[in-house]
Design a protein that fits this description.
Elements (H helix, E strand, L loop, with lengths): L6 H10 L7 E4 L3 H11 L6 E3 L4 E3 L13 H4 L4 E2 L2 H9 L5 E4 L3 E3 L4 E2 L2 E3 L5 E3 L6 H7 L3 E4 L7 E2 L16 H4 L7 E5 L3 E5 L6 E6 L5 H5 L7 E8 L5 H10 L12
Helix pairs in contact: 1-2, 2-8
Length: 258
C-alpha cells in the first residue's frame, strides 16, 4: 500500500463506503460495527443502525464498543427494544443493508460461522450464527467483511450458516427468500461483487499497491474477473482519522502499519 493503512483497517474503510446516506443498516459485531461507525462520521451521518439485541441508534456511540450490548451503545439509543422488534422490521423489508462477518465465505456469498474441519480430522466449533442467517435472508442487500485468506475464501463453505445465493441462479427464489442477498464481499485485498445472471462473486476492484497475484494467491477458487478491473480510490485523511478515533489502539483491526 502507498498509504500507511493496515490490511484490516482498509477492509473496514472500504466496507464503510458501501453504506449510503440515510440507509437503515443491520450491524453485525466487531469489524462490521466499525464500518458503520466510520460511515456515520464521514459520508452517511443520517444512517440508522439496528442491532440484534434490539437497539436502534440514529447517533453513533461515542466510545469503543466490545459488544453491541455495552453501556455506551445503550446510552442515547433511539430505542432499546427486543430482538423480535428489530427482526420484525427486517422481515417487513425496512432494512436496506446488512453488514456481516464470518469464518468462511464461498463463491455464492454463503457464510459459515458454525463449524470447520479440525486440524486432526474432527471438527472445530465456531461461535455460531446469532442473527446473521436472518440478516442474510431478509436484508435488501448484504456486504460481507472477511480477511483475504485461502482458508476463508473457499469454493463451498463447510457449513452454510447464513445463505447468500445458495447454489447459484434461482436458488433464493426457490427457497422463498426475497430478492437481495450479498452485494459485495470486502476483503483485506479487494472487493468482489455479484452479477444477477451468474450469481457468483466476481473480482471487481483491488486496493492500490496490491496486484492480481496478491488476490488470487490468497483464495481457494478462481473468480470471474471484471474487465477492466477497478482500483480502489485512496482512503482520505478524514476516513482514516474517523476509524482511528473509534479504535485508537487498533483493538479490532489488529494494530496498524507504522
Amino acid at each position: 500500500m502507498t498509504q500507511n493503512v493496515a490490511p484490516r483497517e482498509r477492509m473496514v474503510l472500504r466496507a464503510a463506503r458501501e453504506i449510503q446516506e440515510g440507509e437503515t443498516v443491520f450491524v453485525g459485531t466487531r469489524l462490521p460495527l466499525l464500518a458503520y461507525l466510520v460511515a456515520k462520521r464521514t459520508h452517511a451521518p443520517h444512517a440508522t443502525a439496528l442491532y440484534e439485541n434490539g437497539l436502534i441508534r440514529e447517533v453513533a456511540a461515542r466510545e469503543l464498543l466490545f459488544t453491541m450490548g455495552d453501556p455506551p451503545n445503550i446510552l442515547g439509543a433511539t430505542m432499546a427494544s427486543t430482538t423480535i422488534d428489530v427482526m420484525g422490521m427486517m422481515a417487513a423489508g425496512r432494512v436496506d443493508l446488512g453488514l456481516l462477518g464470518g469464518a468462511e465465505v464461498d463463491r455464492y456469498g454463503n457464510i459459515n460461522s458454525t463449524t470447520i474441519p479440525g486440524p486432526s480430522g474432527g471438527i472445530t466449533r465456531l461461535p455460531g450464527s446469532g442473527g446473521a442467517p436472518d440478516i442474510a435472508s431478509l436484508a435488501r442487500r448484504t456486504v460481507i467483511l472477511i480477511p483475504q485468506e485461502k482458508r476463508r475464501l473457499v469454493p463451498r463453505v463447510a457449513f452454510r450458516t447464513s445463505p447468500g445465493r445458495g447454489d447459484g441462479v434461482g436458488w433464493r427464489a426457490a427457497q422463498g427468500l426475497p430478492d437481495g442477498g450479498p452485494a459485495a464481499i470486502v476483503t483485506t485485498h479487494a472487493v468482489f461483487r455479484f452479477d444477477a445472471t451468474v450469481e457468483q462473486a466476481f473480482l471487481s476492484e483491488i486496493y492500490p499497491g496490491l496486484s492480481m497475484d496478491h488476490v488470487l494467491m490468497n483464495m481457494s477458487w478462481d473468480p470471474l474477473i471484471q474487465q477492466p478491473i477497478g482500483l480502489t480510490p485512496d482512503f482520505t485523511a478524514v476516513e482514516i482519522g474517523a476509524l482511528r478515533a473509534i479504535d485508537p489502539e487498533g483493538f479490532w483491526t489488529g494494530g496498524r502499519s507504522r
